[in-house]
Amino acid sequence: MAFRQYTVGARMFGLALGSSMMITLFFPSIDIRNVTATESALDRQLQDGWDAGFNLTDPILKGWNKPVKVLMTKDPKTGAALPPGTYAYVYSAGTWFPSGIIHPVILGAGASDLTVQKGRVGEADNKAGAVFMVKHGMFEGQDYAYIEDVTATQGWMPEAVLSSAPEANVSHSGAGKTMFVREGCWWCHTLLPEETQDWQAFGVPPMLGDFNGASPTSFGSDRKAPDLLHVASRNSSREWMLMHFFNPRLVQPHSIMPRFDYLWGDKDASGKDIDFGKWRAEYDEYHEGKRDTPPDVPEPAKNSEIRELLDFMLSLK
Amino acid sequence: MFKYLFAKNEDIPTGSAAIYFGFSSIIWFVIGTGLGSFNAAKLGFPDFVTGSFVFAFGHMRQVHVMAVIFGWISMAFAMAMMYITPIIGNTKLWSEKLGLWNCFLWNVGLTLALTLMWTFGIESGREYSDFPWPIDLYIVFFILFPLALNVWMTIKNRRTQGIYTTNWFFAAATFMVAIVFLVGNSPEFFHLTGLTEAYLTWWFAHNVLGLWITPVAAAIAYYTIPKVTGNPLYSHRIGHLHFWSVVVFYSTPAAHHLMSAPLPEWLKSFASVEGVLILVPAIAFVSNILLTMQGKWHMFVENLEIKFTVTGVLMAIPLNMQGGFQQTRAINWYIHGTGWIVAHAHLALLGFSTFMEVAAVYLGMQTLMRRKLYSIALGNFHYWMLLIGFSTYWISMTIAGLIQGAGKIYEVPYIDVVVAEHPYMIARWIGGTMVFTGNIVWLYNMWMTARAGTVIPAGRQPHELAYER
Q1: What is the Cα–Cα distance from B86 to A139, expressed in whole angstroms?
Q2: Is A1 a residue whose pLDDT tops 90?
Q3: Angle at CA B231, nearest 5°, toward B458 and B304?
Q4: Which residues 62-121 in chain A show a CB within 8 A of chain B?
Q5: How many CB atoms lie within 10 A of CB A83?
Q6: Does A3 have pLDDT greater than 70?
Q7: Which pLDDT band holds residue A214 (cuts at 50, 70, 90)?
Q8: pLDDT, tens digit (0-9, with 9 covering 90-100), for A96-155
Q9: What does the alpha-carbon distance between residue B322 and residue B301 come to, in Å, rounded to a whole number?
Q10: Set of chain A residues whose Cβ sits within 8 Å of the Cβ of B174
Q11: What percentage of chain A exceeds 70 in pLDDT?
């Protein structure tokens, strides 16, 4: 017996599932596509680079192939002083660009036009590397944030930008986002203050255009811990964060957050081996009241994973 | 199993694929719940196994979810399909050999994927679609597609006139899950970003539950209850209602998982209304099964398979009441992102669906191996460990969720919420550990059934025989 007698049913099934997909996938995609990227969305995707989760350029989630964000004080070409709070996003040669550069259309009306016309991102070449900035401009009488390829418009080269800024001004928040994904921080923390409450405790909920180009968005669904979208506005103490990551119970005795001491790697900032066994033994003594102070948290090395994660945390303003 | 992989199809004993799927699923259940219990211990006692990359909570959390969904639940489904589809069609499985390969590739792929996830933290960063895209493709083409092919071909070669309810669901669900996988992971295949990515993540998560786990679990109950009680299904028509409303209503509310995210408002409202309509298939299913039980309620106490299945069906009532209403704006703002949702998810997967699959595996293994269950006492012990363990979990997480919700709307300093939840975290760990223990006992019981269970004479059903031990 063939399926023939069920042909009507099979067609109805196709129709039902097809209409469901039409409504739940096609219609929303039109809506979402038309959303114009906000300044925060541009900043976020330029920080994160291509993708923070698994992808072929970073298959074991080490934070490879990520840009850095640099706080600029002077123009690398002319040496002229720049206004405070000027940031550049440096993509060294070979680093993949985020979606907004490759397909500016995802930035939505206005932002994408400016990004292409004034920002000249079409000229960015990832083999040579490029430097981007977020700028504001007028399009059809309205103000939009857009991405500018400053390598094309002002001739800033990635190496020149990196060497013009002190180490303390360089943020590895893009690689840090990968750490956030890999370490599963989003199983406990959300990156999404809720619209109905949360305004006071965790800050302003994001808007429709705050995510264009972000991948993964890592909203998180199960909040066992504070929302982190604006955590650095509440607490931007590097020292507190480091102690908290090494062992949350150092600063918050009731915390259930795991220790992330293994992100320090083997060596500290001065190149000495970190003796985790000794640290834990001393901490246990402190915990049992046999020591007055806990052992010091090692200063992380410049290229350690915790440094990247910390940069990401501090970027969540 | 290995010796049959290269045997001729005719030489492979009937039911081999189902038996191997059955044992694999039980082993994955033990692994998955063991990981769950381990994770829960970490939430209760944060310094338990601390400071290690591999055993970090954030690396193990997703391994637990993936092991229970794609190891336990989906393999138990495959097991059920491998033996129920042919029985209902009064025929043989289309290809026993394909079934064995299916099971083999499934175990290999899943082990590989979970090992990578666990030891390196390789993951896409998207809940429920955590697997990186090469694994997703593997799942579609080496796991789901062979399964679907076997089911469809068996249905096509059936020797009955119509197709029974269970088989509509099997045929449709194996098709839908492949679509859900391919569409739901498109952000990874095509690097879609931003809200599209967020929305598709939840589109996937919603539909993998709604179009795969829920209908297949229900389909199994449509088989087990009439088969064991001997009552015909109460109403074929209501079965139709269930089927069509699953396809139409269950496939649409994906956005209700993101009620407080900045999605287009019409989408959230639409999803919310469709979400309430989930009650249509739910009520159709529950009433159909419970009415089929008419006159046979004594079996709820006496028969292990019925006990498991009916418990699962009864759990569908609170499950769908929660599911229908908790996603409306009126309630969602309170419980969104709290332990309440975690409890609800376990009610769906560990309550409702697991209980029905456990029954299917018990029944199928006995039928196919032609051996009566080794020990009814251990079987009952398993039932009570699952039920009490699950209830402990569910109640403690629901309370924890309500505390979190209150903490959220009254903007209590977060650490006070953490402190207030702590006893419930420990209760959750105890509940999870009970489930884990029960499953180890089950594995032992099944193993002993294979070796030492009383042989079932030809022409008899396992439930018709008295226990000898």
Answers
A1: 65
A2: no
A3: 65
A4: 98-99, 106
A5: 7
A6: no
A7: very high
A8: 999 999 999 999 999 999 999 999 999 999 999 999 999 999 999 999 999 999 999 999
A9: 27
A10: none
A11: 98
Q: What is the band of A80 on the pLDDT scale with cuts at 50, 70, 90?
A: very high
Q: Give pLDDT, residue B469.
A: 55
pLDDT in tens, A261-292: 999 999 999 999 999 999 999 999 999 999 99
Report whether B441 contacts B382 (CB < 8 A): yes
Contact state of A184 with B409 under an 8 Å Cβ cutoff:
no
Q: Kindly list the residues from chain B whose CB atom is less than 8 angstroms away from the CB atom of residue A287.
A: none
Reference B27, options B444, B449, B450, B386; nearest CA is B444
Dihedral pair phi/psi, residue B91, rounded to 5°: -150, -170
* Residue B3 neighbours by CB distance under 10 Å: 7
Nearest CA to B413 out of A200, A195, A190 is that of A200
What gap in Å lies between CA A297 and CA A80, rounded to an integer? 39
Whether the CB-CB separation of B422 and B43 falls below 8 Å is answered with no
Confidence band for A198, pLDDT divided at 50, 70 and 90: confident
Name the pLDDT band for A60 (thresholds 50, 70, 90): very high
- Please answer yes or no on whether A106 and B194 come within 8 Å at the CB atom: yes
Spans of chain B below 70 pLDDT: 469
Q: Which amino acid is at B10?
A: E
Query: Does A189 contact chain B (CB < 8 Å)?
Result: no
> What are the angstrom distances between the C-alpha of A219 and each of A222, A241, B137, B194, B248?
9, 21, 25, 11, 28
By C-alpha distance, which of B146, B9, B173, B166 is closest to B83? Answer: B166
Residue B3, pLDDT score: 84
Cis peptide before B134, with omega less than 30 degrees from 0?
no
Amino acid at B188: E
Interface test mutation site (partner B, options A50, A256, A257, A263, max chain B beta carbons within 10 A) = A256
Residues 125-164 of A with CB under 8 A from B: none
| Max CA distance (Å), chain B | 67
Report d(CA B47, CA B418) in Å as an integer. Answer: 15
Task: Select from B46, B156, B264 the Cβ nearest to the Cβ of A28.
Answer: B264
CB contact under 8 A, B122 and A32: no
Count the helices and strands in chain B (H runs, E runs).
Answer: 21, 0
A222, A259, A264: best to mutate for the B interface, most B CBs within 10 A: A222
Cα of B319 vs its chain's centroid, Å? 14
* B251 touching A (Cβ < 8 Å): yes
What pLDDT shows up at residue B466?
A: 83
Helix (H, G, I), strand (E, B) or coil at B159: coil
Using a CB-CB cut-off of 8 Å, the residues of chain B touching A194 are 260, 333, 336-337, 408
**Cα angle, residue A18 at apex, residues B216 and A28 outer, rounded to 5°:** 105
Instruction: Name residue A166's amino acid.
Output: P
Mean pLDDT value across residues A199-224 = 92
Give the closest of A181, A186, A256 to B418, CB-based. A256
Q: Which residue reads 């001004």 in tokens?
A: A169
Which residues from chain B sit within 8 angstroms of residue A54, using beta carbons? Answer: 122-125, 132-133, 188
Other Cβ atoms less than 10 A from the Cβ of A315: the count is: 20
**Parallel, antiparallel, or unpaired for β A142-149 and A130-139?**
antiparallel
Distances (CA, A) of B321 to A91, B315, B316: 51, 10, 8
Tell me which chain B residues have a C-beta less than 8 angstroms from the C-beta of A184: 56-59, 61-62, 121, 123
End-to-end CA distance of chain B: give it in Å, rounded. 29
pLDDT at A4 over 70: no
Whether A217 and chain B come into contact, CB under 8 Å, resolves to yes
Confidence of residue A305 (pLDDT cuts 50, 70, 90): very high
- As given in the structure block, the two tokens for residue B382 are 């398993």
Beta carbons of B231 and B295 less than 8 angstroms apart: yes
